[in-house]
């Protein structure tokens, strides 16, 4: 039987088989923390396919495994079993150099903007290009200035984080994530520290730039106010994925074990 993910469109759910065209393919993925008697399973038989250009929201209770799954996809942790393919590259059992290369294909936006306080907005965005090692300093500077203008901060390129509002800091983080034109953007609670308007502005900006740059976004969030930007919403609870929150609960209930 083919592994499937659930696509939500117009309040209906249809099966979506993992295909070679999927930019992210996850099959029968399990993950554990700890060793020996302390070993604990945190992800259970994850199956998911994401296609180029999709905006996917992953939501569910705190501690359900969402950030763990995101970190595995981004090569920040090593997947242990099953299959996890990013841009047709298998990460399960992959060498460290392969994981590093996978990270270069992704842009990251975190709950905390993670800006370097000793650097200007421009310098923070330039750091998004340094990992690639293919841009000169002048090229990094020009691209950073250009991207800051795109996110509405063209007049604040030389501002330090202390001189920016929360929404502006997150815009710098978005510029840093997108300046290298990644094929995949992984966002972990990007609106958590923002008020309603700033959070909405940030997500709509991400949506706009993703469509313009034809990149895929996988966003972890608890923020029900932004769910409408998603092409699909996927729920996670206690390490299980589902199309609906109640189905996630049923999937790991004692009766279903």
Task: Give the quaternary arrangement of the chains.
Answer: single chain
What is the general shape? globular
From the alpha carbons, calculate the radius of gyration and give it in angstroms. 19 Å
* Helix and strand sequence: EEEEEHEEHEHHHEHEEEH
Percent range of helical residues: 25-40%
Span from first to last CA?
Answer: 20 Å
Structural class, please? alpha/beta
For the largest sheet, list the strands in their spatial order.
Answer: 8-9-10-5-11-12
Count of helical segments?
Answer: 7
Low-confidence stretches: 1-20, 248-257
Report the strand count: 12
Mean pLDDT: 82
Percent range for β-strand residues: 25-35%
For the biggest sheet, the summary is: 6 strands, mixed
Q: What report would you give on this structure?
A:
This protein is of the alpha/beta class. The strands form three sheets. The chain has a six-stranded mixed β-sheet with strand order 8-9-10-5-11-12, sandwiched between helices. The chain has a four-stranded antiparallel β-sheet with strand order 4-3-6-7, covered by helices on one side. Strands 1-2 form a two-stranded antiparallel sheet. It starts with a strand and ends in a 6-residue tail after the last helix. The relative contact order is 0.17. The N terminus and C terminus are likely disordered.
């Amino acid at each position: 039987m083919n592994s499937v993910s659930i696509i939500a469109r117009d309040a209906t759910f249809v099966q979506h088989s993992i295909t070679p065209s999927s930019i992210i393919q996850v099959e029968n993925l399990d993950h554990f923390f700890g060793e020996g008697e302390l070993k604990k399973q945190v992800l259970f038989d994850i199956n998911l396919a994401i296609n180029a250009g999709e905006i996917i929201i992953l939501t569910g209770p705190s501690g359900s495994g969402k950030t763990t799954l995101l970190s595995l996809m981004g090569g920040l942790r090593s997947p242990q079993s099953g299959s996890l393919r990013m841009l047709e590259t298998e990460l399960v059992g992959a060498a460290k150099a392969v994981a590093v290369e996978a990270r270069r294909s992704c842009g990251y936006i975190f709950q905390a903007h993670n800006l370097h306080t000793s650097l200007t907005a421009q310098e923070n965005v330039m750091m998004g290009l340094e990992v690639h090692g293919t841009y000169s300093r002048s090229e990094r500077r020009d691209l950073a200035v250009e991207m800051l203008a795109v996110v509405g901060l063209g007049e604040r390129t030389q501002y330090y984080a202390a001189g920016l509002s929360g929404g502006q800091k997150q815009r710098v983080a978005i510029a840093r994530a997108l300046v290298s034109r990644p094929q995949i953007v992984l966002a972990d609670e990007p609106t958590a520290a923002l008020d309603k308007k700033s959070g909405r502005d940030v997500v709509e900006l991400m949506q706009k730039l993703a469509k313009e740059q034809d990149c895929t976004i996988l966003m972890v969030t608890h923020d029900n106010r932004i769910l409408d930007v998603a092409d699909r919403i996927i729920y996670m609870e206690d390490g299980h994925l589902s199309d609906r929150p109640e189905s996630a609960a049923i999937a790991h209930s004692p009766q279903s074990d």
